[in-house]
Amino acid sequence: MSRADLSPPSDLRGNTIVVIDDSHAVRTAFEVLLALHGARVLSADGPAAGLGLLAEHGAQLVIQDMNFRREATSGAEGIALFREIRARHPQLPIILLTAWTHLESAVELVRDGAADYIAKPWDDTRLMTTVRNLLELGRARAEAAALRADARAARAALATRFDLRGIVYESEAMHTVVAMATQVAHAEVPVLITGPNGAGKEVLADIVQANSPRADGPYFKVNLGALPPELMESELFGTEAGAFTGARTRSGRFEAADRGTLFLDELGTLSAASQAKLLRVLQTGEFERLGSNETRRSRVRVIAATNAPLREAMRAGAFREDLYYRLNVIELEVPPLSARRADILPLARHFLGADFELRPDAEAALLRYPWPGNVRELQNAVRRACLLSSDRAIGAAALALPASRPVSEGEPEPDRATLEQALARAHGVVAQAARELGLSRQALYRRMERLGLKSEAPRPSGSE
Known about the structure:
Elements: E1 16-20, H1 24-36, E2 40-44, H2 47-57, E3 61-65, H3 76-88, E4 94-98, H4 103-111, E5 116-119, H5 124-161, H6 172-184, E6 191-194, H7 201-210, E7 219-223, H8 229-237, E8 238-239, E9 250-251, H9 253-256, E10 261-265, H10 272-284, E11 286-288, E12 295-297, E13 301-306, H11 310-315, H12 321-327, E14 330-333, H13 344-352, E15 357-358, H14 360-368, H15 374-388, E16 393-394, H16 396-399, H17 416-425, H18 430-437, H19 441-451
Parallel strand pairs: 1-2, 1-3, 3-4, 4-5, 6-13, 6-14, 7-10, 10-13, 15-16
Antiparallel strand pairs: 8-9, 11-12
């Protein structure tokens, strides 16, 4: 064994490392080396004693031999110990000490989740680098797990207090919007929901309505983009018999939704004439049916949604500024799915139902794809795969996703939680995390630098 680089001292302080080896000399060497760097070292001469130390004291890292009897050379004892530790402590990093005779077994265990393997005799400098990287990775994972636990608790608390209409999400970006929707639900003011097509604007409107004082009142939805301009007015305000050929007396949506809620989707498609009449009913509650001079009143809360850039439309004279500010008392902006990638797999599993499951290659494909069609595109892709797959386990081929492209710099950035989860899944390998996120390595490094994130660890040295 070579001399270790002992600077800086005490850089492992606060970490407990358990060493399991039948050789007293090996245990002593590790105790001296790791203690010089500030680690608390507990050693055991066999599997039973090692498991006992872990149960009693816990640890941040285990270094274990592959054989524990002089006559043993197969590595079977080490394999059994590794699997027992992994079963009891799934997240605990384990370094395997191996001789060339059972190197293949160690490599196989790395594939099964071992952190790394070190050949005997070892190089102290390389060993310490591996130990530091694994402990840093463990801290990052613990912090990420704590953040995820806090986020789960916040989502659970919100779901306990409010009716969230079955919405599925895990991202912090979506949690912020959903929490805001529940906060503004009680206010008797219009709400404008913005965001791209298929991102979930309608379910957000449902949350606002379900938690409002009008939850028990009528609730109507109108897709303005699906209505021809000549039918828009009659749909919203009603008609009188004879207003046009074949017209019959009927109430419009404002009249039917009196004392309730009206959801107007694709607001940006309204004609200039319809915008003026909508502004009037929002200001005064008054309107007339098409073909009638009788003024009627309706007390309706309006929730509007649009994927159109209304500010640009105002500058171009295509949308009334006074109507915009009348509707935009409260704005809820739904981020695209590409900006909340932590929601992709939970949504996919929700759409799969109990009869199907995702293979790892399918999960990776879902995370790589940029989802320009947002949640609606994801739902369609998953449902299509379920219909066409002959296997309960859905693979990437069954999803039949188009070739993915890197996310461009101008698109919304993944949030901190999404980056942390991708780095954790990639074991800190930035190139792998970047591929999953659809980013270049340089783009991911820039985002990590802005958020103060570090790559968690290099690829385990034995896996190359």
